Amino acid sequence: MTSxxxxxxxxxxxxxxxxxxxxxxxxxxxxxxINTIQRAIGDAWEAEDLAQRVFLQVYRSAKxxxxxxxxxxxxxxxxxxxxxxxxxxxxxxxxxxxxxxQSPREAADGSGWQAPDTTTPNPxxxxxxxxxxxxxxxxxxxxxxxxxxxxxxxxxxxxxxEEIAQVLGCSVSATKSLLHRARLTLKxxxxxxx
Length: 194
What we know:
The protein starts with 6 loop residues before the first helix and ends in a 5-residue tail after the last helix. The protein is an all-alpha fold. The chain has 2 domains: 1-93, Orthogonal Bundle (Rna Polymerase Sigma Factor, Chain: A); 123-194, Winged helix-like DNA-binding domain superfamily/Winged helix DNA-binding domain (Arc Repressor Mutant, subunit A). Mean pLDDT is 82; it is low at 96-108. Helix 1 crosses helix 2 (19-41), helix 4 (71-92) crosses helix 8 (161-168) and helix 8 (161-168) packs across helix 9. The longest helix is centred in the first third of the chain and has 23 residues, at 19-41. It has helices at 7-15, 19-41, 44-60, 71-92, 98-101, 123-142, 145-156, 161-168, 172-189. It is globular and about 55 Å long.
């Protein structure tokens, strides 16, 4: 197996039951899938579990896979469907975030106080940057589903308009329109941060 072997060739091997080829596909694409899911649902732990579901679906669908588009387009279509299913599940079963239940970390001496981290170059700037990134992700998550997916695939995964259109099942012009409306919404909602 060569690292330059195409995804389509690897899928052909997966179709024939080659688990090494499947492992190679996972290694190539798991970070992008996890990041896409995390940006869509805002939960790192859940993103890893959902990414496993995505790759399980890839494996189950290997016999039916037809290379009519780029492999990543097909993969992100499965990823999108998994995200949609998760949003539906969450709507039916509202849950409390584990982050909301966690107590603040305590010092080793049990005093409840921690010494400041002196290895961080500029804590105030890091906090501001982190808050901005969190606000951006929160705002992206509030976008309508198609706009949110288009933004994530364009901005974070680097897919072309054509690839995004295939994932969303719409035209390239509709994709451009979705991205334009999403950018306007983001610009409006994040106005105070820039």
